Amino acid sequence: MSALPPAAARIWLAQGLTRDKADTLLLLAAALMVLAPHAAHLPLWVSLLSGATLLWRAAITWLGKRMPPVWLLVPLAVAAMAGVYATYRTLLGRDAGVAMLVLLLAFKLLEMHARRDLFVVTFLGFFVLLTSFLYSQSMPTALWVACALVILLTAQLSFQYTGVVPPLRQRLRASLKLCALAAPLAALLFIGFPRIQGPLWGLPGDAQGGKTGLSDSMAPGSLSTLAQSDDPAFRVRFLGAAPPRHQLYWRSIVLGDYDGRTWTRVPRKRGLQRLEIAIHGRGQPVRYETTMEASNTRWIALLELAGPDVRLPGHRVRDTDELELYAADPIEHRLRFSASAYPDYTLQAGELPQRMTRWLELPAGYNPRTLALAQQLRAAQPEASAQQLSNAVLARFRSQGYGYTLEPPLLGRDAVDEFLFDSKAGFCEHYAGAYVVLMRAMGVAARVVTGYQGGELNPVDGYLTVRQSDAHAWAEIWTSAAGWQRVDPTAAVAPERVQRNLARALPRPAAFGLAPLLELQNNPDSWLAQLRYHYTALNNSWNQWVLDYNPERQRSFLEELGAAFGNWRSALGMGLVLALLFALRWQRRRQPADPLDALYAAFCRQQARRGYERRPAEGPLSYAARLRAMPASQEKHAAMDQFLHLYGLLKYGAGGTESRPASLATLKTLLPLCR
């Protein structure tokens, strides 16, 4: 290679960094970005050891010290692998395997002695970056991985240059260009490559390891704990007008057995025969599509009263006499399905009273004060109907100073007694459970229903998001004339819970003086709420079209795409696109075929924009002499002289000490420095 004015090298030296140091520090920055996402799920000692190793390597690079000897690295690596085995009790599997890869990447940075080691570290970084999707496939994770990929590519490109190294900005631009060139092919493969059922990467935490939702039992405090989570339970898109909020009761589990503290489902082991359930829906059904998050349970929450046509992809759906729907296996990944519901209905009207005795059972020896209160209410209205007795209980809740709280006091053996007569503060499970006990004690068949109530409508995309904080418990009472009727005792104490949402009924205290921001978030017209709506809509689109791009959606999308291409307007549009592509190809063919001439033409265009256009009969040496009058830095003048000198040698056959490909690469490197 002919002597080059090391413009970039001078910059590094002015900053106290040689090229090797700068490239190594860039590689360490890329490795830090690769390892950062794994700190959320790896053991703390693995993250601390990896971070300390990167700091150690950075100190060695900055101070110019020698690498640690092998006799020190080998015991350290063996001890780390032993720590992985002690933590996971295996060296196989996802968690143990990723932990070993993370440690291997960190230790390999201390053992780089040859050019081959640089490529080993780089490609190992690509692989460890890919393992991030084993834990999360969320939109922020994908964005972080994309940024880390660009930095890692930039570090890899930096080691490829043999002459003058372009500025970091140009190397970043080259990496972005590589990613942009690969993106269309990746998108085409994503859309058209045959899909497999379930998430592509196995068991990501946000696609399959969802937070457990409702359980098949209810005790004081169970729903109030769940209601403090803002994680989405499911999202709904109505195919027509959405029902009013007071009808948005998402039925899930019916509880009928009570042991004095905990409500559970009525077990099938009692030998109960499946009943012929009389159901009558009136009016037009409400049709909607649900995207259900992973819950690791079998229960499905559906709008009351759900139609019988629910189908879950990949799951067998079963039902019970209480109109519960559940999957045969736990739901471990996000599901999308269609459903319908009849808000106006009658359920088991005209049923034989003897078939309802199981909904009158109460445990003996519990809650004596509650039973005495029920006798008083019944004695006060001996001829009262079930609805009148229900109104009497609700009137007591409204008038006797009861409070609605997420932090109710602990209750003892006679939980309903202590709630009704002592604490008078509780969450929805307290009111629903106490109401059912009172109604049963007065001879009215009653049961507890758990599910969700309400939801937040996003005006940006029209989806209703139902969160775990919308978990709710209500009651049903039965009469022969009207069948099962929904009664929500919580609405008697906190009507805002049903009419608005939990945040309006129980505003949470804002820490660190963030009360104004919390108020802005709860105001749907504020800029903060609008920002949250747009982000939620974007995240929902990511879930719908990327994470949930399953075989059914792929088939439907490709069919719609094929039908669209059959339209003459689409064909015309495709023709215009093809014509544009041919025009671009023709334009490129007009460019000089010789890469040397193409580089020279690009150089001349650069200088012409500065007012120094090359004259028709001006050769490279004469042009170089005239360009020396241009006001520019010493590094730029040196780069322009070197470019024109090397071009003249190649163009007019004098040649040089380099091969032609190497000389062309040098010209490509010099070209940005001549701007």
Describe the structure.
This protein is an alpha+beta fold. A hairpin with a 5-residue loop joins β9 and β10 (325-327). The strands form 6 sheets. The protein has a 5-stranded antiparallel β-sheet, with no helix packed on it. Strands 8-3-15-18-19 form a 5-stranded antiparallel β-sheet. It contains 24 helices and 19 strands. Mean pLDDT is 82; it is low at 1-15 and 200-211. It starts with 6 loop residues before the first helix and ends with a helix.
Topology:
Elements: H1 7-14, H2 19-35, H3 44-63, H4 70-88, H5 94-108, H6 115-130, H7 139-158, H8 168-192, E1 217-218, H9 222-226, E2 232-238, E3 249-255, E4 257-258, E5 263-264, E6 279-282, E7 286-292, E8 302-303, E9 317-319, E10 325-327, E11 335-341, E12 344-347, H10 368-380, H11 386-399, E13 403-404, H12 415-423, E14 425-426, H13 428-441, E15 446-453, E16 456-457, E17 464-467, E18 471-479, E19 483-487, H14 490-493, H15 495-499, H16 502-505, H17 515-522, H18 527-547, H19 551-565, H20 568-590, H21 595-609, H22 620-627, H23 634-651, H24 660-673
Parallel strand pairs: 13-14
Antiparallel strand pairs: 1-5, 2-7, 2-17, 3-8, 3-15, 4-5, 6-12, 7-11, 9-10, 15-18, 16-17, 18-19
Helix pairs in contact: 2-3, 2-6, 2-7, 3-5, 4-5, 5-6, 6-7, 7-8, 10-13, 17-18, 21-24, 22-23, 23-24
Query: What ranges have pLDDT less than 50 throughout 5 or more consecutive residues?
Result: 1-15, 200-211
Sketch the major β-sheet: 5 strands, antiparallel
Oligomer: single chain
Got a strand count? Answer: 19
Q: Strand order within the widest sheet?
A: 11-7-2-17-16
